[in-house]
Amino acid sequence: xxxxxxxxxxxxxxxxxxxxxxxxxxxxxxxxxxxxxxxxxxxxxxxxxxxxxxxxxxxxxxxxxxxxxxxxxxxxxxxxxxxxxxxxxxxxxxxxxxxxxxxxxxxxxxxxxxxxxxxxxxxxxxx
Length: 127
Description:
Elements: H1 3-21, H2 27-40, E1 45-55, E2 58-70, E3 74-79, H3 86-99, E4 103-108, E5 118-122
Parallel strand pairs: 3-4
Antiparallel strand pairs: 1-2, 2-3, 4-5
Helix pairs in contact: 1-2
């Protein structure tokens, strides 16, 4: 499966979860359930993956943690906030720079309708 195929199933799964649970729960609740559902679909799902920072040739694992990475191809950053800020989008762009992944989603489960809380982020992804 390519990135776009994975992304389609991630979004469908996230929308199903949001419709059932509604908005406003903690990010970790959505994270654990989304990871479980994607695993049940046969994906390799990793949670809270360290994204190291390399400075002067030295790697530091203390940099960031990606919420979910699916099949080592698609990054998912989860939020449960009233509104996505530019800082949240910059966070995903920083993860792209550090991981070299090409597709990611910023999913805000705090929205009344998840569709309005989906931000698709690309990094040199061939469509």
